[in-house]
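Database export, one record per block. Field names are fixed; values are copied verbatim from the stored entry.
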Amino acid sequence: MITKEQLEALTTTIRLGVGHEDQERVVAAALRRLLIHGQRGVVLADEVGFGKTYEALAITAHVCAHARQGGESFERVLVLCKPALVRKWQEETSGTHSGRGFPQYLSEDHPARELFESVRCVDSRAAARELRENGTRAQRVDGRLQVPPGLYVVNEKLLSEERRQASTLLRQVWRTQWDLVIVDEAHHYARGNLPARIFAPDGDLRNYFQEALQFDRVLALTATPFELTPQQLVDLLALVRVESKHLELIESRLKDFVRELNRFFELRGRSSTDLLRAQQVVRLQELRDGNPDSGDFESLGLQCLLRRFLIRNVKSDNERRYFVTSRCTTGFEQIHFDKLGEDLQQKLQRLSLIPFEDEHALFYLELREIIQDVTDRARNEMQAGTFISTDLRQGLSSYPQVAASKLMQRELESVVRLRALVDEWNRSGQLHPKVAALVEVLCTIAKSEIQKLRVAVGARISKVLIFNKLTSHTAPQLREVLSPLLEQSFENYLSELLNRAGISRRSLADTVRKAVDRQLAAAEREFKENAAFAPFHLVPDAFTNEEFVRHRGRSLIHVFRYPLRRRAVQTLALIDVCREASVREEETVEAWVEREVTGATINTIRDVIRRDLAISADDEGPYMRGLERAERELVIELETVKSVGIVGRYDGKNIREREGHRRNFNRRHNPFVLLVGAVGEEGIDLQEQCRYVIHYDLEWNPARMEQREGRVDRMGWGRRDEGYIDVRFLLLKGTYEERIFHTVMQRDQWFQILIGSKRRELGQLPEDAEEDVRQDEITEDGSMGALTEVEKARVMLDLRPE
């Protein structure tokens, strides 16, 4: 154990910096629970965008330092995450790039630094096999087989029993006694999804005595704990090994609170001065607060009980403004709305939104009739019915999407007729009304961003994030339609700048490419002529990434030459150089190229050679770890500098390219627009250059909508000087989509007030609610009341760290 004074001294060794005081309080609170109270784990449940990753890594570093100071071992840390987030954790644990990655906060002699110098990422069985072939093999420590010391970032799906049995290294990972386990997006485990079997092979997370993954301490990360049912929330606490007697008490208190909350809902239409409503508020406050001064654990209220094991920061101000897109006489306009302060049903009734008209309206009516016909047939034939929500939403997304749907493959006469119409529209280029609306909205945003550049010398382009759940056919069409239009808009502005400077695009591009070539050639000569660097500047034979394998025998610099040359002459890059440099002066162009294109890459290669490759091969352990780390860092850099189109994608259909698109979206040049599917709704950071968030379609779950917007509304939001994040909804008038919007907004409004954050009602909404809801079952309850400030203070749970 540790004293409060020792804990305070420990936490001063790592400072996250000005503006991160909330995160430092979370770190200190978690350490109190682990090192003073002796808990095995804690849930870090900050709202989206607070930086839970860095909080977890800071806690890891402090626990490591404390153990080493006491002469104890702390050598093995496991991070479990979704496949799409392995690269993100890889980036956050990297210390190569200046000013990026958690290791920047560690002093050179910090005990945890060696952990971050031995990071191994396992996103596939192939990666596990390569690591083993390169020397990552189990060692026997105190009679137990353990993987070598280090920090392991592992795709959680690989540790399911079936998959780990197929890999020696994965079996060893599962059998290792970990000093600390970090579980990312832990709410998925609490739902009993497959990865939960890592901790509970029998499916019961509350059974602590089964043979499962072994660890000393655990951190569970989730931004949306209250989207879970009460039972699942208790399972989340079981994941961090809360004592059984405490779990039972929390479960009881939680059930009581939810029951009284539901009773309060029944009174929500009454005046705030109504006696029954006031009495219910008092009852909720009693359950929330209990008797915290008694010193008796049994007398604690729900808030105090949860605070012991779950820490949650919430934002004090809202940096988002919300708009719906509505047609007007000149095209489309953005209508602002207040999610908490106005009647959205009445407001939307007065708006045109995106209308289905003419032949498009006939299409939608025919689609509804077909869905109803198919549903009636299935009911009459005692068969499973079609999911109305899925079929309707495909029809509300794009014509390529509905053409490829299962519904359109049926041989009913009405289906054949509608399919022929949709196929003809796709051949002729007829756009779905929502696609056409998005095109106009994006072109308008591009024009406004260009105008911003015209009037403000130091202005930069703010980017656009579009969430599109149906990525298989809608996303490709959006990219195909948007790319030439947006490219042309920026090319026209580039022509203005070039005409003003009296230089052609080709001439400027040649000048920029030559500067890239000169700087890379100079760096290559530097490495060749430096005796310490010369033996190590070539691509190592041990590298296995295909992007490097095909360049074996050549210099590391050469691998980056073509991507950097292409990147440097993208339209947005040339606009940047025209605005930042005097394009007729070679020196200023040279300086821009070094600052914006080549400098970071050359420095990364230099650091990798010096730190990771220039290690004596006589010492096999450090040499192999250096090779692993070098390849990992250089792959990250290559993904960062790859040339990307004006419209990028991050979804399950472009796995090989999506990391490059994500990394470039966070930089100044292409892509201007990023289309994101469901795989990108959690865990990734997209806040550095983005200001606009567009919901092309909707999620039923308000927590998921919050996760989407949280990709931008994060610590370090790069467009804070522009005032707010512009969040837009594209809704088709009078359709199922408008009904979803009302339902989600009502849930969001009420539960944001009641529980202090954007989340759905405890225990009321299934994980896949849309699969259970029929079109005629979506109701619009306009009787929601508003809480007074006094009621909010008495009812809302506050789990911020003390």
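Remark 1: Residues 757-784 have pLDDT under 50 and may be disordered.
Remark 2: The longest helix spans residues 474-501.
End of record.
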